[in-house]
Design brief:
By secondary structure, the protein is mostly beta strands. The chain folds into three domains: 2-192, no CATH class; 199-294, Sandwich (Immunoglobulin-like); 303-393, Immunoglobulin-like, CATH 2.60.40.1080. It has helices spanning 2-23, 167-170, 177-180, 303-306, and strands at 36-42, 46-49, 57-59, 78-84, 88-91, 107-108, 113-115, 117-120, 143-152, 158-165, 172-174, 190-192, 199-207, 218-225, 229-238, 243-247, 257-260, 269-278, 287-288, 293-294, 309-311, 320-324, 329-330, 336-337, 340-345, 348-350, 362-365, 369-378, 384-393. The strands form six sheets. Strands 1, 2, 3, 4, 5, 6, 7, 8, 9, 10, 11 and 12 form a twelve-stranded antiparallel sheet that branches. Strand 4 and strand 5 form a beta hairpin. The longest helix is centred in the first third of the chain and has 22 residues, at 2-23. Pfam families: Ig_Rha78A_N.
């Protein structure tokens, strides 16, 4: 065991010579502001620095990130170089072919897990960390694989947690002292100001109108995933994303819902999509909901909106009370059609030929007080609306007949 450890130490010393040589090669190390900083630790090669005056590691923050190596489709890609005084430059976006799965350079996924490969340039055939194995590196190819490394976004800035493995030369690389339980001895860690690409989940679209008093309306909602929502944009389409009928534009609000009546029609199916922005201005891109809603075929009965009335306005017990209303029912194309009626009138009897199923019944109330009256109108498709009021019934005044006293 001691022999193997001694051999590794001697090998690191040898590699350090190559690292010194490669350190003089212009690698175009820094471009833009790097968002990764701090130190990692290897018991074999010692400290690894993730940022310096002319070098650093960066995690690409989407299409708008202008950092060298970032751009379209680069969200979560790690680029740039770290530095070890023992093995020199470590590149985080080396080209393949890679030793084994996963066949990619270091990459942060949508959940904050880091997988893939970095490479120590001293183990590569070329100074830019490309090519096969350096013929003078004793068979060491410089590859370092990320194992179970995650970003903890509860902390600010986010902290790396976990280990990478770099063969016997580099050994296990710890990115946070918390893994070894020795933060009291050396409080090291690698951190980043990178945020995960924002997203939206729990997408929903629903009709929120009371069709008895209003026309069609749609409400969409979502749950934001990310640090903090700074803006949103909603687009609503007629059909399956066929015709755009409403675009909210970019709205700088933290609200997680959007409602509209604009261009929403009867007897139509609607779909929608949303994109959200986080506090740093990163967009989720368009996220489509798989659900749709279809509005009613036509207007609902108007009884709730129109209401009803009665004569006399202040009726008495046992007095004929005539109800009337101007409500309508509708069919296809919002063409007026007949309604079915249902009256519920407390403590009253219907005056023939009136009945609970006529449009405008006549009744007599058999007691005094406030009497609830409910009428329901139903169209031929079964859509119904109700209106209700209270009728105050008083005592019927006696009839007076004037007579002479003598």
């Amino acid at each position: 065991m001691f022999k193997k450890y001694l051999i590794n130490i001697l090998f690191v010393v040898l590699i350090a010579g190559f690292a010194y040589f490669f350190a003089g090669v212009n690698l175009a190390l820094a471009s833009g502001t790097d968002n990764v900083s701090g130190w990692a630790w290897s018991s074999t090669i010692g400290w690894i620095s993730f940022n310096g005056a002319d070098y650093g590691v960066h995690i690409c923050a989407g299409d708008s990130d202008s950092h060298t190596g970032c751009g379209a489709g680069s969200d979560g890609k790690m680029v740039g170089y770290a530095w070890s005084s023992n093995i020199g430059w470590i590149k985080f976006d080396p080209v393949g072919p890679y030793p084994s799965s996963p066949s990619q350079a270091a990459q942060v996924d949508a959940s904050g897990n880091i997988t893939g490969w970095a490479r120590a340039c001293a183990g590569a055939a070329n100074a830019d960390c490309s090519g096969g194995t350096n013929s003078k590196a004793g068979g060491w190819d410089g590859w370092i694989k990320f194992f179970n490394i995650t970003l903890n976004f509860i902390s600010s800035p986010a902290e790396f947690h976990g280990y990478a493995w770099g063969s016997d030369v580099v050994g296990w690389v710890s990115f946070n002292c918390a893994e070894g339980g020795n933060c009291n001895n050396s409080n090291y860690k690698v951190t980043t100001t990178y945020n995960l690409k924002p997203s939206a989940i729990n997408l929903d679209i629903r009709q929120t109108a009371d069709y008895c008093v209003a026309g069609p309306s749609i409400t969409t909602s979502w749950t934001f995933v990310g640090d903090n929502q700074s803006a949103y944009q909603v687009q609503i389409f007629e059909g399956n994303f066929a015709t755009l009928v409403k675009d909210s534009g970019k709205v700088s609000l933290t609200s997680n819902s959007f409602s509209t009546i604009e261009n929403i029609k009867y007897n139509k199916t609607y779909s929608w999509q949303v994109q959200v922005w986080d506090s740093s201005g990163r967009s989720s891109g368009w996220i489509k909901d798989t659900k749709t809603v279809t509005t009613p075929a036509h207007l609902y009965p108007s009884i709730k909106a129109v209401g009803f009335s009665w004569i006399p306005v202040e009726p008495a017990r046992d007095e004929d009370v005539s109800f009337s209303n101007n409500s309508k029912c509708y069919g296809a194309g919002n063409v007026e059609t007949d309604c079915s009626w249902s009256w519920t009138i407390s403590n009253a009897s219907y005056v023939a030929p009136s009945s609970p199923t006529v449009k405008e019944p006549v009744v007599k109330f058999n007691s005094v007080g406030d009497k609830p009256v409910i009428v329901r109108a139903t169209d031929p498709d079964g859509n119904w609306c109700e209106a209700s009021k209270s009728v105050k019934i008083s005592v019927k005044l006696p009839k007076w007949k004037e007579i002479t006293p003598f």
